[in-house]
Design goal:
By secondary structure, this protein is an alpha/beta fold. It has 14 helices and 13 strands. It is globular. Bound molecules: zinc ion (ZN).
């Protein structure tokens, strides 16, 4: 793109003293990784791409569904019909908004096996996940590779954001030493989530992220910021660095070390994810053909979906599968063996 077009595209950024030409050039040289393309991830991706961050990596393991659309602003009904992976759908929609940005879509489950490789694809990592286990893993991986990351969480009409800069700020384990027990904290599944609240939190989160890419870390809000868009209440809590924190004080990356995360239940859904013993390359077209008699089959470059009420199966190219309609791992494995042959 010519300087002239560039000038027009980012003109309103260039007017801002916090950005200007130098800041805009910095964004172009930067890369950001978004983990999870749900409600938060959609809004994060929108602003990263439209702001002209040079490379944006979108990572998500799931497909677009009807009950996502009220808050996951990038997706369409067509994406639901086609069973498109969220990372791929998000990337395709955003390429039309800014063709100058390199957008990489990874249809992958973030686990101990791949988290280090994934976070190193960017200068900044943004948390769009829906579970604590992945956040502890991100915390370890980002501390180890000295990458800034920004935690965010949303439930009902409230939410929170915290920036973590290795060597500078407290880390996620300083704030929350152990994951809460199941059922201890409300989730989107148990109490719902207010669409505009997701947008508010993600906007705040991506703004903090852009500050980091612009080299303006001193302008970050220190600590844990909480907002409630319904009541209008907001607060910033200071978080103290724990001198005994295993992760940021002692450099013991417990979650990476244990290779945790072979997660099976998917947060917020009546669904089970089943990971293959070892990765393989499935012939999706052949699989789709074989399943024709079982129910309604959809196939695309990334997966085969079999709809067979009350169950729905998603089989990805590397052998990973998601079974919807059950929360029992045993049932999911039995159904996969019976109907898919996995
Ligand atoms: Zn710490």
């Amino acid at each position: 793109m010519s300087d002239f077009e560039d000038y027009h595209r980012y003109q309103k950024h260039l007017l801002l003293p916090q950005i200007g030409r130098r800041g805009q050039a910095r964004l172009r040289e930067s890369a950001a990784v978004v983990i999870g393309c749900g409600g938060l991830g959609c809004t994060l991706a929108v602003y990263l791409v439209r702001s002209g961050v040079g490379r944006v990596v979108l990572v998500d393991r799931d497909c677009v569904e009807l009950d996502n659309l009220h808050r996951q602003i990038l997706f369409t009904e067509e994406d639901v019909v086609q069973g498109r992976p969220k990372a791929v759908a998000a990337a395709e929609h955003l390429r039309r908004a800014n063709s100058e940005v390199e957008i990489i879509a990874l249809v992958e489950d973030v686990s101990g096996d791949n988290v280090e490789e994934i976070v190193q694809k960017g200068d900044l990592v943004l948390d769009g996940t829906d579970n604590f286990e992945t956040r502890y893993l991100l915390n370890d991986a980002c501390l180890k590779h000295r990458l800034p990351w920004i935690y965010a969480g949303v439930v009902a009409t409230t939410g929170m954001v915290m920036s973590i800069i290795p060597g500078k700020t407290p880390c996620f384990r300083c704030f929350l030493p152990q994951p809460p027990a199941p059922g201890e904290v409300p989730t989107c599944e148990s109490v719902g989530v207010w669409g505009p609240q997701v947008g508010l939190i993600a906007s705040f989160q991506v703004s903090e992220g852009l500050k980091i890419l612009l080299g303006r870390e001193d302008d970050l809000l220190a600590g844990l910021a909480t907002f409630d868009i319904w009541s209008g209440e907001w607060e910033i809590f200071s978080v103290e660095k724990d001198p005994d924190c295993p992760a940021c004080s002692q450099g013991d990356y417990e979650y990476l070390r244990k290779g945790l995360l072979r997660m099976t239940t998917l947060c917020g859904q009546e669904a089970i994810q089943v990971l293959p013993q070892q990765k393989r390359q499935l012939d999706l077209a052949a699989l789709a053909k074989r399943l024709q008699t079982q129910g309604k089959v959809t196939v695309n470059d990334y997966l085969v979906r079999l709809q067979m009420p009350p169950y729905e199966f998603y089989v990805f190219q590397d052998g990973r599968a998601i079974v919807k309609g059950t929360t029992e791992e045993k049932t999911a494995r039995r159904l996969l063996a019976k109907y898919i042959g996995l």
